[in-house]
Amino acid sequence: MSDFILEARQLGKSFGGFRAVNNVNLNVERGTIHALIGPNGAGKTTVFNLLTKFLTPSSGQILFNGEDITDLNPVEIANRGVVRSFQISAVFPHLTALENVRLALQKRLGVSYHFWRSKSLLSELDDEAIERLDQVGLKRFAHLRAVELPYGRKRALEIATTLGLEPELMLLDEPTQGMGTEDVGQVAELIRNVSVGRTIVMVEHNLGVVADLADTITVLNRGEILAEGPYDVVSKDPAVMEAYMGIKADEVEA
Ligand SMILES: Nc1ncnc2c1ncn2[C@@H]1O[C@H](COP(=O)(O)OP(=O)(O)OP(=O)(O)O)[C@@H](O)[C@H]1O
Question: Keywords, A to Z (predicted)?
Fold first, then answer.
């Protein structure tokens, strides 16, 4: 039996008369890193927003662990273990790294408005927060304010706050966007580390990162799936080359 943690069936989204996503069928295998790629305007962000329930599908169905989550909202799916990083986990610039992660943990435990109540609960949360920071290589920055962290480290902090929610499935929207080479390497390594024991779906433009990290790649073009498989397979697919570089299939063969 296959073990798909996330499935999209005949997913579609129209904006007015424009069909931005059409009949997308996705099967995300548990424990893998699954990347969504495609040229500009291919529909990646729209599919991502559908999967994370930031947009309502015009048609189709989304299943998480075999259960229909099509009608749930982002908070409801987060409670089930589907967490979108970067948007849902706002980082507060003037709080320290530790305070940011502690706040995320308080949200998970539903104690955000009672945090002054118990000193022992606070120190328990601190221990867990430090552990999360350690997981993303930020332990030594624990007492630095978020605003003082370099860009790549801020992303790491965002991931640490997401980890506080204990996601089974983590969705990352262009995790290396706008980064220099050094930060890209750091964040890629971080994603690999946090992928242990969970599933990751990410939209990513940097094909080097995708080649390095993704077990499966779905290539979208004009709102539809063009190709799917491991990097070695999709990168040699003539239709993918044509969509990315404008090279025609017969030219590729030639
Ligand atoms: N809210 C909207 N209203 C109208 N059209 C939209 C809307 N959102 C997206 N689109 C259109 O849907 C298509 C797919 O857009 P989408 O942002 O999903 O592509 P993408 O693959 O993420 O592109 P990029 O790599 O440039 O971010 C585009 O033609 C876009 O103009």
Answer: ATP-binding, Nucleotide-binding, Transport
1-87+169-254: CATH, from 3.40.50.150, 3.40.50.300, 3.30.530.20, 3.40.1710.10: 3.40.50.300
Ligand 1, atom 2: nearest CA belongs to which residue? 15
The domain segmentation of the chain, as residue ranges, is: 1-87+169-254, 90-164
pLDDT tens profile 183-204: 888 889 989 998 999 999 999 9
For residue 15, how far is its CA from the centre of ligand 1 (angstroms)? 9
Q: Ligand 1 atom closest to Cα of 43?
A: 18
pTM value is 0.88
pLDDT in tens, 112-170: 555 555 666 777 788 999 999 998 889 999 999 999 998 888 888 988 888 877 899 99
**Overall average pLDDT of the 30-42 stretch:** 95
Ligand 1 atom showing the smallest separation from residue 223 Cα: 14
| 3-state helix/strand/coil string of 150-168 | CHHHHHHHHHHHHHCCCCC
CB-defined site of ligand 1, < 6 Å = 15, 18, 20, 38, 40-46
Collapse the DSSP code of 46 into the 3-class scheme (helix H, G, I; strand E, B; otherwise coil) and give the result: helix
> Closest ligand 1 atom, CA of 16?
4
Alpha carbons 135 and 131: distance in angstroms, whole number: 6
